[in-house]
Amino acid sequence: MEVLTPRDVPLGGLRAMTVRRTLPQRQRSLIGAWCFLDHYGPDAVDRDEGMVVPPHPHTGLQTVSWLFTGEIEHRDSAGHHAFVRPGELNLMTAGRGISHSEYSTPETTTLHGAQLWLALPDGDRQVEPTFEHFAPEPVSGDGWEARVFIGSLLGSTSPVTTYSPLLGAELTLEAGTTLRVPVDPSYELGVLVDTGAVRVDGKPLAAHELGFVEPGADALELTADEDVRLLVLGGPPFGEQIVMWWNFIGREHDEVVRYRAQWEALLADGDRARFDLPDDDPLEALHAPPLPNARMVKRGP
Predict the structure, then answer these.
(1) How buried is 90 (Cβ within 10 angstroms: 0-12 exposed, 13-18 middle, 19+ buried)?
(2) Cβ pair 8, 19 in contact under 8 A
(3) What span, in angstroms and rounded, lies between the C-alpha atoms of 284 and 281?
(4) pLDDT tens figures, 198-236
(5) What are phi and psi of 147, to 5 degrees?
(6) CA 229 – CA 285 distance, rounded (Å)
(7) For every residue of the chain, which 3-state class applies, written as one string?
(8) Distance in Å from the first CA to the final CA of the chain
(9) Is-contact 73 105, C-beta < 8 A?
(10) Which value, to the nearest 10 degrees, does the dihedral of the CA atoms of residues 14, 19, 22, 27 take?
(11) Are the C-beta atoms of 190 and 238 separated by less than 8 Å?
(12) Confidence band (pLDDT; 50, 70, 90) for 15?
């Protein structure tokens, strides 16, 4: 098991909340189609502004919002207005292009969760934008409980739409519990520890670390050294190179440059060739940052 440690990244403006960015990293860009993982909290929202992310664009990906504590309000340019709460999934498919905003609600006093992205395969990355909300029923056994929000695990299957084989689940284990989790041997796997400590196939993994497991195993053995909550993520190796910059995923430098120009054209003169804005959003949309001085590097195999 390869252990990846996160780096702290500010999300937003001057009073930004800090997130732990675990993917991408220099040594690993993807786990299956999972290409981005921000893990945050628990943050006391009454001390700061919480999550305040005004309208911003996406292309070529799906966003996955999963909370442990708190509540987030979502609006997008495809007309969806929804909330996400602990144990619930918000899955937004950007496809050819969408914009959305995310704000922690006034009732939220503690914010704690994960924000993830899924890269869309080349043949599906221009689909029309969509949104799905799903609250999985927990499955449980002696000393453990699981909520499967994407794919199938431990006898539970999520009905949400994905464009490549994938797995996403939250597991909690009581201290001293050992759980053998059957998995697809074709999958790369990631185990993100939220709280506590666990051994994955006998190897220790501490809070906030992400353990990467190569394809080939038909099961993961999880042993909780203390009460632990974790996410299990997986999928077959993605097999495509991507260019990921700001909130865009494309395949070439010039394609991402074009997405940026189309977003800025919307904000400048209302050109809706690719993007639009959510209705009734309380804040102005974010401008794209300046482009890098060099050509953007492809990630992946």
Answers:
(1) buried
(2) yes
(3) 8
(4) 999 999 999 999 999 999 999 999 999 999 999 999 999
(5) -125, 115
(6) 35
(7) CEEECCEEEEECCCCCEEEEEEECECCECCECCEEEEEEEEEEEHHHCCCCEEEEEEEECEEEEEEEEECCEEEEECCCCEEEECCCCEEEEECCCCEEEEEEECCCCCEEEEEEEEEECCHHHCCCCCEEEEECCCCEEECCEEEEEEECEECCEECCCCCCCCCEEEEEEECCCCEEEEECCCCCEEEEEEEECCEEECCEEECCCCEEEECCCCCEEEEEECCCEEEEEEEECCCCCCEEEECCEEECCHHHHHHHHHHHHHHHHHCCCCCCCCCCCCCCCCCCCCCCCCCCCCCECC
(8) 19
(9) yes
(10) 20
(11) no
(12) low
| CA–centroid distance for 237 within its chain | 17
Phi and psi for 199 in degrees, rounded to 5? -110, 130
Report residue 300: phi and psi, to 5°. 120, -165
Cα 29 to its chain centre, rounded Å, is: 13
Contact between 179 and 159 under an 8 Å Cβ cutoff? The reply is no
Question: What is the predicted pLDDT for the residue at 48?
Answer: 57
